Amino acid sequence: MSLSLPRHDVADLGLHQAGARRVEWAARSMPALRRIFERFERERPLEGLRIAACMHVTAETANLLRALRAGGAEVALAASNPLSTQDDTAAALVAEYGVMVHARSGMDPATYARNLATVLECRPHLLLDDGCDLVNLAHLERPELLAETVGGCEQTTTGVIRLRQMSAEGMLRVPMVAVNDTATKRMFDNRYGTGQSTIDGIMRATNALLAGRTVVVAGFGYCGRGLAERARGMGARVVVTEVDPVKALDAAMQGYTVLPMAEAAPVGDVFVTVTGNRDVIRAEHLAVLKDGAVLANSGHFDVEIDLPALESLAVDVRREVRPQADEYVLEDGRRLVLLAEGRLVNLGAAEGHPAAVMDMSFAVQALTVAWLAGNHADLAPGVVEVPAEIDTEVARLELRALGVRIDDLTPAQEDYLSSWRA
């Protein structure tokens, strides 16, 4: 443990050794980020920069922050979800890796907001966000801090939606890179990561058999596709609900039953929302759910299931029937089970995405931060796309780690693709 620790508010610094073991275990499955760490250590592309981050405090995130520290940055971290913080990882980030951390598992909303404000006090040059809460706070309550902020990154669909709204209204004052919108992030993190980790969270919280049961997936974006695939692979009957005609058609063509939520509600056994919108499961749906129906959310915020409506329908005090599984008893005796308080079930009831998946997402994030550090002067405020070469470089790093080789274009093929006269 370092004798001079950065400013922090964590549950127990004594957990730092256990946290370091967890971080090192995750690092074994993050070869692309390890190579970037080594490059950053040599080149120091982030020397002198201050970074404020709002992210899930997990072992995978810790490895990203280690790479940023190796590149020369000072880093302050707040949690992006009250339930996802690993207290041992938080302790290790402070004591072993020199990161300012303000995060505790299970903190209340007031503490969550206070921690976001605290990390902004580092007067950041760069913002790393997961859901746009940090950017939102800086713009609405601490705009004076943006004088030194040159840009940032957003890694969730929900956050990018909010950023685009800010930009459309002329309110976004810095360039924010939509890391979420890269092919590696959407295809692997959203599809494979969310699909597997959501099922993991549901299984840990309920120990329920999915085979033969009806799983309703609300939303058929990349996250919903991955979740539907994994649920079907475990033998579940999968029903998809959608508002987008193209995505609904895609689900139908893949063989899923597509229904409005009003028709899916009476037949479903397990419901998972992954839309990025609010009130997807409302009072009229809750009123017709089966006894024992399980409700879970894998969208970023806890607004996809109408929790006030669930509270108002319950006649018995909510009780925890299993860790991260709360039972609500309705007037007619039906019992509805809510997982992880309606927050991200894959992080509230499990450990989030596998490290191998986050390796790609955080490799893109690390390279994008370095690119921002060197190119921010050429960028205007607004939502910025990740340079295509970064996405390609990360894919190549992952292929190399997997021992997979691919073809190169021949000169004749390159000429053919670059000339319409051929």
UniProtKB/TrEMBL annotation:
<feature type="binding site">
    <location>
        <position position="190"/>
    </location>
    <ligand>
        <name>NAD(+)</name>
    </ligand>
</feature>
<feature type="domain" description="S-adenosyl-L-homocysteine hydrolase NAD binding">
    <location>
        <begin position="190"/>
        <end position="352"/>
    </location>
</feature>
<dbReference type="GO" id="GO:0006730">
    <property type="term" value="P:one-carbon metabolic process"/>
</dbReference>
<dbReference type="Pfam" id="PF00670">
    <property type="entry name" value="AdoHcyase_NAD"/>
</dbReference>
<keyword id="KW-0963">Cytoplasm</keyword>
<feature type="binding site">
    <location>
        <position position="189"/>
    </location>
    <ligand>
        <name>substrate</name>
    </ligand>
</feature>
<feature type="binding site">
    <location>
        <position position="130"/>
    </location>
    <ligand>
        <name>substrate</name>
    </ligand>
</feature>
<feature type="binding site">
    <location>
        <position position="346"/>
    </location>
    <ligand>
        <name>NAD(+)</name>
    </ligand>
</feature>
<dbReference type="GO" id="GO:0033353">
    <property type="term" value="P:S-adenosylmethionine cycle"/>
</dbReference>
<dbReference type="GO" id="GO:0071269">
    <property type="term" value="P:L-homocysteine biosynthetic process"/>
</dbReference>
<feature type="binding site">
    <location>
        <begin position="156"/>
        <end position="158"/>
    </location>
    <ligand>
        <name>NAD(+)</name>
    </ligand>
</feature>
<comment type="function">
    <text>May play a key role in the regulation of the intracellular concentration of adenosylhomocysteine.</text>
</comment>
<comment type="pathway">
    <text>Amino-acid biosynthesis; L-homocysteine biosynthesis; L-homocysteine from S-adenosyl-L-homocysteine: step 1/1.</text>
</comment>
<feature type="binding site">
    <location>
        <begin position="219"/>
        <end position="224"/>
    </location>
    <ligand>
        <name>NAD(+)</name>
    </ligand>
</feature>
<feature type="binding site">
    <location>
        <begin position="221"/>
        <end position="226"/>
    </location>
    <ligand>
        <name>NAD(+)</name>
    </ligand>
</feature>
<dbReference type="InterPro" id="IPR015878">
    <property type="entry name" value="Ado_hCys_hydrolase_NAD-bd"/>
</dbReference>
<feature type="binding site">
    <location>
        <position position="277"/>
    </location>
    <ligand>
        <name>NAD(+)</name>
    </ligand>
</feature>
<dbReference type="Pfam" id="PF05221">
    <property type="entry name" value="AdoHcyase"/>
</dbReference>
<dbReference type="InterPro" id="IPR042172">
    <property type="entry name" value="Adenosylhomocyst_ase-like_sf"/>
</dbReference>
<feature type="binding site">
    <location>
        <position position="242"/>
    </location>
    <ligand>
        <name>NAD(+)</name>
    </ligand>
</feature>
<comment type="similarity">
    <text>Belongs to the adenosylhomocysteinase family.</text>
</comment>
<keyword id="KW-0378">Hydrolase</keyword>
<dbReference type="GO" id="GO:0005829">
    <property type="term" value="C:cytosol"/>
</dbReference>
<dbReference type="InterPro" id="IPR000043">
    <property type="entry name" value="Adenosylhomocysteinase-like"/>
</dbReference>
<dbReference type="InterPro" id="IPR020082">
    <property type="entry name" value="S-Ado-L-homoCys_hydrolase_CS"/>
</dbReference>
<feature type="binding site">
    <location>
        <position position="185"/>
    </location>
    <ligand>
        <name>substrate</name>
    </ligand>
</feature>
<dbReference type="GO" id="GO:0004013">
    <property type="term" value="F:adenosylhomocysteinase activity"/>
</dbReference>
<keyword id="KW-0554">One-carbon metabolism</keyword>
<protein>
    <recommendedName>
        <fullName>Adenosylhomocysteinase</fullName>
        <ecNumber>3.13.2.1</ecNumber>
    </recommendedName>
</protein>
<keyword id="KW-0520">NAD</keyword>
<feature type="binding site">
    <location>
        <begin position="298"/>
        <end position="300"/>
    </location>
    <ligand>
        <name>NAD(+)</name>
    </ligand>
</feature>
<feature type="binding site">
    <location>
        <position position="353"/>
    </location>
    <ligand>
        <name>NAD(+)</name>
    </ligand>
</feature>
<feature type="binding site">
    <location>
        <position position="58"/>
    </location>
    <ligand>
        <name>substrate</name>
    </ligand>
</feature>
<dbReference type="InterPro" id="IPR036291">
    <property type="entry name" value="NAD(P)-bd_dom_sf"/>
</dbReference>
